[in-house]
Amino acid sequence: MYYIKVDELAFHYEKEPVLTNISFELNPGDFIMLTGENGAAKSTLIRNILGLLKPTTGQVSLSPKNCFGEKLMVGYVPQQVASFNVGFPSTVLELVQSGRYQRGKWFRKLNKEDKEQVRRALESVGMWDMRYKKVGELSGGQKQRISIARVFATDPDLFVLDEPTTGMDTKSREEFYKLLKHHSESHGKGILMVTHDHDELRKYCNKHIELIRKEGLPWRCFSMDSCKELSKPHLSFH
Amino acid sequence: MFLYGFMQRAFQASFIISLIAPMLGLFLILRRQSLMADTLAHVSLAGVALGLLISINPTWTNILMVIVIAILLEYMRMLYRTYSEVSIAILMSGGMALALFLISLNQGGTTLSINQFLFGSIVTISMQQVWILYLLAGIIVCLYLIFRKAMYVMIFDEETAFTAGLPIKTMSILFNVLTGITIAIIMPIVGALLVSAILILPAAISMRLSKSFSSTILIGIPITLTGMLSGLVTSYEYGTPPGATITLILVTVLAIITIFKRLAKVFKTDKSLYKKQT
């Protein structure tokens, strides 16, 4: 069973090809890091996978169900959130709570379990004490942390993270990677993460996709070498 | 003044507008569409001119026109995603040009009506308009209560909202249409030139005062009400246009709050520096 299946994907911005020949699968419990030089269309690939862009050729499928037969929940942390720059009038708590809405809470009140999940998510990134602060008053690193807390509050089956550790210190990054590894191994979450810290992340993830410029391709067009297996996941979820 | 029927209707209209303006205004600001209200008001004027030209109740041609433009705005926002203000500029000037063109085709007899729509008039508010406002407010409050969570997620970030499974395109169009209809209905009262100010200013003021999202809307209601009521009384006493008077009062409130907040910040910094030194 897969959560993400990419088959011979190619993507062109107008007529200019930027991605070609991309194929891989992400299964429950997989923690894949996606790397590549600056401008290697990593975010473009992510946006194709999430349906925000349409592949020019090839196919992307997201599984409609998770491994327990329920609706697949996707948690996405984009590289930049525009609202953060304009002093979004919201408290940290309100924002992180909004991560729970997609779990069938669009029209219902959050219950005890939801609130507990929000508390755990905020504690896991060390932001519980700042829950009543206005989002616009936070530093860049703190904003990044609450984006992560929000996705943890959602408790999705599939995490899609686009350079989520920008502005975080080494210790916080390590803790975050450990937490993700725990989620993939113990709870069967699928994780696809764009990063530049491949040396640091290597010991936590089990697969590596690198977007590279191959010979014979147009100058801005990237492809992938292979989906390298770094380790076998030690799955312990049921 | 309170014994006059037209003033009673104007006060009722003010109460209703105070309820809906902060809700729509906050979403407009956060979607970076503050000028959309202005665009729709300009286009509204074209709707009014069309109604007067073909001798149909201008309110209906107005509503029809803003619905079409609200949908077109969303399409153009997607087309000029990076420079979304381009769509606003094009439609605003296009709407104004169409209004002037239609007015010139219908010379004789329409100047007074057009002036009323341009600058607003409290004297002409009919009971029918007040009932329409009640209905509109009922719909907006219900929609807000039902969809506030989805709207919050959408205005925070449209891409994460999409991945969370929200139909963002449909929601955007419906929001634009609702804003357009609201503008078309309140325009004869406050005037096309300043209708956007009545929507945007209260939310802009309450954003400076509140920390949380829900309190921003709650604080916005008394702010709008204060501005609307004091504006109406001033307008009655001095014979000034109601839209302009209300806007000037709200701008003054915004200026006072900004100055006070600035002073409070300076005072706080000085106090903490003094504490450190001692």
Report the span from N to C terminus of chain A.
14 Å
Proportion of residues in β-strands of chain A: 25-35%
Largest interface: A-B, 31 and 25 residues
Structural class of chain B: mainly alpha
Low-confidence stretches of chain A: none
Instruction: Give the strand tally of chain A.
Output: 9
Question: What's the shape of chain A?
Answer: globular
What are the defining features of this structure?
A: 238 residues, 6-stranded mixed β-sheet, 3-stranded antiparallel β-sheet, 6 helices, B: 278 residues, ABC_TroCD (chain B), Zinc transport system permease protein (chain B)
Describe this structure in words.
The complex is a heterodimer of chains A (238) and B (278). Chain A has 238 residues and is α/β, with parallel strands linked by helices. Chain A is built from 6 helices and 9 strands; from the N terminus they run E-E-E-H-E-E-H-H-H-E-H-E-H-E-E. Chain A has helices spanning 42-49, 92-97, 112-124, 140-154, 170-187, 198-201, and strands spanning 4-13, 16-26, 31-36, 57-62, 74-77, 158-162, 190-194, 207-212, 223-229. Chain A has a 6-stranded mixed beta sheet, sandwiched between helices. A 3-stranded antiparallel beta sheet of chain A has the order 2-1-4, with helices on one face. In chain A, strand 6, helix 5 and strand 7 (190-194) form a beta-alpha-beta unit. In chain A, helix 3 (112-124) packs antiparallel against helix 4. Chain A starts with a strand and ends in a 9-residue tail after the last strand. Chain B is mainly alpha-helical and 278 residues long. Chain B has helices at 5-30, 34-53, 58-79, 85-105, 111-119, 127-156, 158-163, 168-190, 195-209, 213-238, 242-277. Chains A and B meet through strand 5 of A and helix 6, helix 7 and helix 10 of B. Chain B: One of its GO terms (biological process) is response to zinc ion.
